[in-house]
Design brief:
Elements (H helix, E strand, L loop, with lengths): L2 E8 L2 H32 L5 H5 L2 H7 L9 H23 L17 E4 L6 E3 L9 E4 L3 E6 L7 E10 L2 E9 L12 E6 L3 E5 L4 E3 L3 H4 L1 H12 L11 H35 L2 E5 L3 H4 L14 H14 L1 H15 L2 E5 L26 E3 L6 E3 H18 L1
Parallel strand pairs: 8-11, 11-12
Antiparallel strand pairs: 1-5, 1-7, 2-6, 3-4, 4-5, 6-7, 8-9, 9-10, 13-14
């Protein structure tokens, strides 16, 4: 199986400057390639593809030895492939009748990753194994110390460096990682995602919603107001205090993101260790969190409530959790079943009843069947129905 490992880099001051220059030069290459494609089509109605632009790299590197010529040829090819994938996605959405989204130029804050598509081609993982410290070698930068907090298994295929705020991370994509199957428990459950509780299992266990975003909202708002007080300026024109204020906002966002991911990993690991089969809802979170613009008949109806619900859904991090849960289940040999979420909390779980009605759920937390009188917590009912639907899909 394929797995990604993410480690914190510990670069020196000189290496940080070199990493920043590498990122900026790759961004300029991306923007120049995009400009060339736009000009060629606008002036001559000619489409330029990846092969045409990759063939120009040799001349670009020769003409700019102290700039583009410093970095790995393979990493620059990966940047051009990144642009090519953006155009492919644009034409695919255009053909499907979706909102196309033409590829955009990347500003300094919108280009944060450089890829090396092959280990030992301009890069080398664990480049100094005899030194007692794990390091990665990057062409033009040198041997960078890596905080390798776990063992890397499998074969390292690609290496990426990513900047998040003031921190630098190394991402390794590995093939042939052995799956560590956990012993069978003979148990199955369904999980109902929620806002009041992060999730509820069919056994009645409820995991609290940590609400990391809401807990940091006041500090984040104060930091954003402080950064906005300097006015809108380009990165090159910002003062030291302005850069510190912007970095503070980014650091708070990153802290919330790390906390949310940590909670997702711990919760998913617990579920995978306890159950052999986990049934969950096939949620379309993008559709669920669309902008609340009201209706044509009643413009602005319930916009504030819908906006608050969208914020709570995104703060809970359902999408991150479900992605982590699928990955951990695959690694442990567990089974994940996705079911249609429609009416799971409005259907009576009693086998002899099964009545479906909106009135079965008079409040957010209560369920009371208007047909047979069965009563329970609404989230437990939803998880029970999800489990039953998941087992039905497996047996069919």
């Amino acid at each position: 199986m394929r797995r990604a490992y993410k480690f914190l880099l510990r670069p020196t001051v000189g290496q940080q400057a070199a990493l920043t220059a590498c990122l900026d030069d790759h961004r300029q290459l991306y923007n120049a390639a995009l400009q060339e494609r736009r000009d060629a089509y606008r002036k001559r109605k000619v489409s330029i593809r990846y092969g045409d632009q990759s063939a120009q790299l040799k001349d670009i590197r020769r003409d700019d030895p102290d700039g583009q010529g410093r970095w790995s040829f393979s990493s620059q090819q990966a940047t051009l492939r990144r642009l090519d994938k953006a155009f492919q996605a644009f034409f695919r959405r255009l053909k499907a009748g979706q909102t196309p989204g033409f590829p955009r130029f990347k500003g300094a804050g919108w280009f944060d990753t450089v890829d090396w598509p092959k280990d030992r081609d301009g890069c080398r993982w664990n480049s100094t194994p005899d030194s007692g410290q794990t390091r990665v070698y990057l062409q033009g930068i040198g041997h960078i110390r890596v905080h390798a907090h776990r063992t890397v298994e499998g074969i390292v295929k690609t290496i990426s460096v990513k900047r998040e705020g003031r921190r630098w991370y190394l991402v390794l994509s590995c093939d042939d990682v052995p799956a560590l199957d956990l012993p069978e428990t003979g148990r199955a459950t369904g999980i109902d995602m929620g806002i009041a509780s992060f999730l509820t299992t069919a056994d009645g266990e409820q995991i609290i919603n940590p609400r990391h975003g809401r807990r940091t909202a006041e500090r984040l708002a104060a930091a954003q107001r402080h950064a906005a007080s300097f006015g809108r300026k380009k990165a090159a024109d910002r003062s030291r205090r302005h850069r510190q204020a912007v970095a503070r906002v980014a650091a708070l966002h990153a802290k919330v993101r790390r906390r949310r991911l940590d909670h997702a990993h711990k919760t998913a690991r617990r579920l995978v260790a306890t159950y052999d089969v986990i049934a969950c809802e096939a949620l379309r979170i993008t559709n669920m969190t669309r902008s609340a613009s009201g209706t044509a008949e009643q413009p602005g109806t319930n916009v504030a409530q819908k906006t608050g619900l969208n914020r709570s859904i995104l703060d809970a991090g359902w999408g991150v959790f479900l992605t982590v849960l699928r990955a951990k289940a695959e690694s442990a040999g567990r089974v994940i079943v996705e079911v249609d979420p429609a009416n799971t909390s409005r259907t009576c779980p009693q086998p002899e009843c099964g009545h479906v009605a909106k009135e079965n759920r008079p409040t957010q937390a209560d369920f009371r069947c208007v047909s047979c009188g069965y009563a329970d917590h609404a989230d437990v009912v939803g998880a029970t129905n999800i489990l039953r639907a998941g087992l039905a899909l497996l047996t069919s």
